[in-house]
Design a protein that fits this description.
Elements (H helix, E strand, L loop, with lengths): L27 H16 L4 E3 L9 E4 L16 E11 L3 E8 L2 E11 L1 E7 L5 E7 H14 L14 E3 H7 L5
Antiparallel strand pairs: 1-2, 2-3, 3-6, 4-5, 5-8, 6-7
Length: about 180
């Protein structure tokens, strides 16, 4: 059975460390971690979660876009484990949009990200995938990839004036969508 993992909060040193390459995707510990990350991101109403957010320093994250309380207009997709992910190319076109983080509860920030990225990753079954992601799903990937590099979305906000509490975000932004 998949375990709901505790989510590390801002200030925990694991969130600021570069994570380690996963050598054996088929290892039982990695397979169990994937299942637990999927259960945890669903439980927390997130659209993505990286292993370092659960104090595991593995280059692995889940992209799990779906409409929920935190992201009511998110596109629907199956939760996807992305192991040893890489960004192969980025569009020059960027967009700012609101991001939150399960490790930084109660705060949203306007974060500039590439609108489209070409990525490569290993899936849970050990196969290598290469694809292009755009817009919201590309944003999730870049956010989670940053976690593997020890970067928090707050590091990418260009001004403290582009921060907002979750309550204000729900009042001002979600009600306008």
């Amino acid at each position: 059975m998949s375990e709901i993992l505790q989510i590390s909060q801002l200030g925990n040193p694991v969130l600021r460390r570069r994570s380690q390459v996963v050598e054996n995707v088929k290892d039982d510990r990695i397979q169990q971690l994937i299942d637990s990350l999927i259960a945890t991101v669903k439980h927390a109403h997130g659209v993505g979660i990286a292993a370092p957010q659960t104090a595991k320093s593995d280059r692995l994250f889940i992209v799990a876009s779906r409409p929920n309380l935190r992201y009511p207009n998110a596109p629907q997709m199956e939760p996807t484990a992305m192991i040893n992910p890489r960004i192969m190319a980025r569009s020059t076109e960027t967009a700012k949009d609101w991001e939150g983080c399960l490790s930084v509860p109660g705060i949203r920030g306007l974060v500039p990200r590439s609108r489209a990225i070409e990525i490569e990753y290993t899936s849970k079954d050990g196969k290598i995938h290469r694809q292009e992601l755009t817009d919201f799903v590309a944003r999730i990937f870049q956010h989670e990839y940053d976690h593997l590099e020890g970067i928090i979305f707050l590091d990418r906000v260009e001004s403290t004036e582009e921060l907002m509490s979750e309550d204000e975000y729900q009042k001002q932004i979600v009600n306008l969508l």
